[in-house]
From TrEMBL:
This is Uncharacterized protein. It comes from the Bacteria. It comes from Chengkuizengella axinellae. The lineage of its organism: Bacteria, Bacillati, Bacillota, Bacilli, Bacillales.
Length: 76
């Protein structure tokens, strides 16, 4: 069953939200990464809300905070 606005072409085509979710789950299950490895990888990164754009893409890198979306930076 397809949604009203499919996106993409060929094998990368997404027909609906359930189709997208199933494709992501297949990729995750076939990647060989365990949940423990994923949680450990995520815990090594500090993410915060960017004061400039308001997105949760403000990360600490090399002693400074940088927004991965808008480029806002804060050191110190």
């Amino acid at each position: 069953m397809s949604g009203a606005n499919p996106v993409g072409f060929g094998e990368n085509r997404i027909d609906s939200l359930p189709d997208a979710i199933s494709k992501v789950l297949k990729l995750f299950l076939n990647s060989g990464i365990t949940e423990d490895e994923e949680v450990e990888e995520m815990s090594n990164t500090s993410v915060d809300i960017c004061p400039s754009c308001g997105k949760s893409t403000f990360v600490r890198q090399e002693g400074c905070y940088n927004c991965l979306d808008c480029g806002h930076s804060k050191c110190g």
